[in-house]
Amino acid sequence: MRLAYHCADRDDARAAMERLKERYGAVELADAEVLIALGGDGVMLDALHTVMGKNVPVYGMNYGSVGFLMNEPNGDDLPERLQRAERARIHPLRAIGRRADGQTFESLAINEVSLFRETRQTAKIRISVDGRTRLEELVADGVLVATPAGSTAYNFSAHGPIMPLDAQLLALTPISAFRPRRWRGALLRHTSTVRFDVLEPKKRPVSVVADNKEFRDAETVTVCEARDRMLTMLFDEGRALEERILVEQFAPD
Known about the structure:
The protein folds into two domains: 3-91 and 230-249, Probable inorganic polyphosphate/atp-NAD kinase, domain 1 (Rossmann fold), CATH 3.40.50; 93-225, Probable inorganic polyphosphate/atp-NAD kinase, domain 2 (Tumour Suppressor Smad4, Sandwich), CATH 2.60.200. It has five helices and 16 strands. The chain has helices spanning 11-24, 41-50, 78-84, 154-157, 241-249; strands spanning 3-7, 34-39, 58-62, 86-90, 93-99, 104-109, 112-117, 123-129, 132-146, 169-179, 186-189, 193-199, 206-210, 213-215, 218-225, 231-235. Strands 5, 6, 7, 8, 9, 10, 11, 12, 13, 14 and 15 form an eleven-stranded antiparallel β-sheet that branches. Strands 1-2-3-16-4 form a five-stranded mixed β-sheet, with helices on both faces. The longest helix has 14 residues, at 11-24.
């Protein structure tokens, strides 16, 4: 099996990569059947962005802290495990926006697209879904849209819902909402288009973050599922992402 590698900048991950290369060989990404990601969940997200549009599945080995999206760091019988691996296919989110200086931006996100206040003052944001205003003014530290794959990440930390991978939903979750104080977010169809308009953008500037890519001083951003992009993650038998998401919902605090 032709393998390429994407490695975290840490000694144990680099050492593991060299052992795998020596044992199983290595090719360039353009010629690979599978991309092996060695690190934590952040490295997995980087690897998925690397293969965006290339139709190459990614298999992760955990050399990080959480490793929710990763497999155990075991190099034995790797080609056989990859052949038997369970596949999780996901669509990323597409964020298209405009900054206060008139410049536009576009980015893809696998976990979530988040809006954050840039200063000590809370953000004021209008939220529309499929062309209809649903919340005239959210006053909060921010707000995010998460995919099912990303629902266990920052979305969960912001008290958003965990969603099964095949739920065909998006989570719309406020971050430290001040007003409406009781609003806890919403579950939307995966085909929904969400638009955020930043109110008072000069007085209350807001950044947009798509996974780990940031765009500062945003005035407006539209988020929807990128149906033209498909990503595939590989998991060892019995450790499928669907099962992990279910287990996470019953895990003790």
